[in-house]
Specification:
110 residues, alpha+beta, HIT family, subunit A, five-stranded antiparallel sheet, 3 helices, 5 strands, 25% helix
Length: 110
């Protein structure tokens, strides 16, 4: 098998909810690098890197956060207050992702 195929079949990737994204939530954007959709648990915009890893390059992070920013303006339109990016990877700690949250900061934002 090629390295690419072997990586796709890694056990942690097959069990990862971000690698096997539930396509039933609203999708805002998708590229070969990331996808932005509503989180199936929190129901807020979420950006996830398509690679099962926790350390994307700074260029990739900027692209992904820009896409999340666009989705967040769409999602939170009309709501009072602000939104912020929550970079805590609680739901899936082995896979880089960021949620957009509404309201005051929790003190653990990105």
């Amino acid at each position: 098998m090629s390295g690419f195929i072997e990586r796709l079949l890694e056990p942690e990737r097959l069990d990862c909810p971000l690698c096997t994204r539930n396509r039933q939530t609203h999708l805002y954007a998708e590229t070969d690098l990331y996808w932005v959709a509503d989180c199936p648990i929190c129901a807020v915009p979420l950006v996830a890197w398509k690679l099962h890893d926790t350390q994307p390059s700074s260029v990739a992070v900027v692209r992904m956060l820009n896409a999340l920013l666009v989705a967040s303006f769409e999602f939170f339109e009309g709501l009072e207050g602000t939104f912020w990016f929550d970079g805590r990877m609680v739901w899936c700690p082995g896979h880089w992702h960021v949620h957009a949250r509404h309201g005051g900061k929790n003190g653990k934002e990105m």
